[in-house]
Amino acid sequence: LCPCLIYGAYVFLPFDAPLLPTVSARLVYTLRCAAFATFPIVLGMIISGISRLCHSALEPFGELQQEVEIHRTYVSQSIHLFILYFFNMAVLATYLPQELLKLIPLLTALFAISRLIFWLSYAISRSFRAFGFSMTFLPLLAMLLWNLYGMFILEPEGLLS
C-alpha cells in the first residue's frame, strides 16, 4: 500500500521540490520537512499529559491505567522511529536526483499519517496496530536499503567524504 500511496501522491499532487543544487540546501529542506513529522508526536505528548493529569486527579498514587499507558507507549515508539526516519531521510536527500526530491515531503507526510493511524488502531485494539506500524517501518526499511545501495554501489568512492 505504501508504494501505491507514494506513487499516487508523486504523480497527482501538483507541487515540485524547489531547486536544491547543494547538499546543504537539501539537508535544510529535509530538516524543514521533518519538522512537520513531529506533529503526531507532539500531539501524543499533549494527549498523554492530559490523560495522565486526569488519571492522577482520581488516583494520584495508583498504577497507570491502560489509556495512559497507550499514549505513553505511542510517544516513546514514535520518537524512536522518528529519529531513524529523519536520519535516513537526510541521507536519502543527498543521493536523490533533483527531480525525485519531491519524495522528501511525501515520505514525511506518510510518516505523520502512518503514526496517527498506528495510534488510532493501537487505542482501539492492540491487535490492529500492525497496519500502522508497517506503514511506518516499511518505508523506513526501503529508505535504509536505498541509502546503503547509494553508499556502497552508486558512490563507493565518496562513502566517507
Overview of the structural elements:
- The structure is a single chain.
- With about 160 residues, this protein is mainly alpha-helical.
- The chain has a single domain (about 25-160), classed as Membrane associated eicosanoid/glutathione metabolism-like domain (Four Helix Bundle (Hemerythrin (Met), subunit A)), CATH 1.20.120.550.
- About 75% of the residues lie in helices and about 0% in strands.
- It has six helices and no strands.
- The longest helix is centred in the middle third of the chain and has 30 residues, at about 65-95.
- The protein is elongated, with a radius of gyration of 18 Å.
- The two termini are about 35 Å apart.
- The relative contact order is 0.14.
Key words describing this protein structure:
single chain; 161 residues; mainly alpha; Four Helix Bundle (Hemerythrin (Met), subunit A); elongated; membrane; TMM79 protein; transmembrane helix; transmembrane
Distance between the termini: 36 Å
Give the DSSP E fraction (strand runs of 2 or more residues). Answer: under 5%
The CATH homologous superfamily name equals Membrane associated eicosanoid/glutathione metabolism-like domain
Which topology does CATH recognise? Four Helix Bundle (Hemerythrin (Met), subunit A)
What sequence of helices (H) and strands (E) makes up the elements?
HHHHHH
> Per the principal axes of the C-alpha atoms, what is the gross shape?
elongated
CATH top-level class: Mainly Alpha
Averaging pLDDT over every residue, what do you get?
Answer: 85
Protein name: TMM79 protein
GO biological process, one term: regulated exocytosis
Transmembrane segments: 29-50, 79-97, 103-124, 131-154
Keywords: Membrane, Transmembrane, Transmembrane helix
